[in-house]
Amino acid sequence: MATAHQPPVVAEDEAVAGAVDTAAAAVDTAALESAFDAAVAADERIEPRDWMPDAYRATLVRQIAQHAHSEIIGMQPEANWITRAPSLRRKAILMAKVQDEAGHGLYLYSAAETLGTSRDELLDKLHAGRQKYSSIFNYPTLTWADVGAIGWLVDGAAITNQVPLCRCSYGPYARAMVRICKEESFHQRQGYELLLALSRGTPEQHEMAQDAVNRWWWPSLMMFGPPDAESSHSEQSMTWKIKRHSNDELRQRFVDICVPQAESLGLTLPDPDLKWNEERGQHDFGAIDWSEFWSVLKGNGPCNEQRLTQRRRAHEEGAWVREAAAAYAAKHSDHDKDRRPATPGTHGEATA
Ligand code: FAQ
């Protein structure tokens, strides 16, 4: 009977409708995916409202967050020297540089927020040790020359890595990198100029500059990440054009840039195997101690604990500033609301 069959008939209809929906969704996703792939292949920018694969989004959040955390943790080693800078000029330069790093962190957290995460969430993960920051900032700044070595080598490595990121497929990250690279380039020059002054100074100052370069050289090479064969994300990130070059390619480029600069500085790079290879048109260099790199990543570098403790403390102690800023913003948005005409333009005011 018709009535007896009705429910199964309805269920069958629903099942058919459900299957059609699933098939349509699959077709939609496939179409979206191929549009995304075509946009990436054509070097178009992916913007926040565009469809993107979940894994692309997750990769960007991971990398941008790690980058942002590096900028703000990276303020610590240099800030250590602000009170002990040898002149007012050097102090003013260093303060401006450290402030720039904070700014870079903010641009990057904002870029990450366009992917649907929040700065609070990312900071919580950093403080809980669930997200990384660059290995380089787990080394101590023992002398004033370290400020120069950080500028020359660490900012130099950062620029080498970041200039290609200005062409990253994700628009907000690429645009943030343009401004950051301009500032990093200034930072690199101040480090070079500082080291040059020390290198040409007294024998003790020259020795201090050399010692700083000896300590920062190898960790700077590690900043580019593990060798290509051990880089878990490179292949996919390069297909998506998040990364444009592999870790080893950029590391090689950095070595080739540094060798003539070290010569001009009158300093030696601490690598007896470093030599020009005529055939390759590049420098050969010695083996990197990757066990040190992985150990630092696991939290066992000389300053890991100190950096995270200081970061957590700064966050807690800064709570009142965030609360005050939020209260101020809320007060002003109410205030602005009161001053706004009920119907835009009713008082003949400009409403733009
Ligand atoms: N430190 O598969 P890959 C600066 C991790 S900013 C710690 O090759 P990927 C400015 C990696 O996350 C410096 N961890 O990874 C400044 C992954 O672990 P996961 C920061 C590292 O992402 C100057 C695992 O190893 N710059 O210095 C490091 O494809 C002076 C496997 O590695 C950026 O973040 C490392 N060095 O390539 C501030 C640039 N390397 O996440 C103050 C943007 C690798 O699976 C003073 N980032 N790992 O758990 C990138 O270009 C890339 O993320 C790489 C790594 C190249 C760093």
UniProtKB/TrEMBL annotation:
GO BP terms in the entry: phenylacetate catabolic process
InterPro entries given for it?
Aromatic_CoA_ox/epox, Ferritin-like, Ferritin-like_SF, PaaA, PaaA_PaaC
Q: Which SUPFAM superfamilies match?
A: Ferritin-like
Name any GO cellular component annotation: cytosol
What Pfam families does its record include? Answer: PaaA_PaaC
User: Where is there biased composition of kind Basic and acidic residues?
Assistant: 331-341
GO MF terms here are: phenylacetyl-CoA 1,2-epoxidase activity
Q: Where is this region: Disordered?
A: 326-352
Annotated protein name in UniProt: Phenylacetate-CoA oxygenase subunit PaaA
What organism is the protein native to?
Streptomyces longispororuber
Its taxonomic placement starts with: Bacteria, Bacillati, Actinomycetota, Actinomycetes, Kitasatosporales
* Gene responsible for this protein: paaA
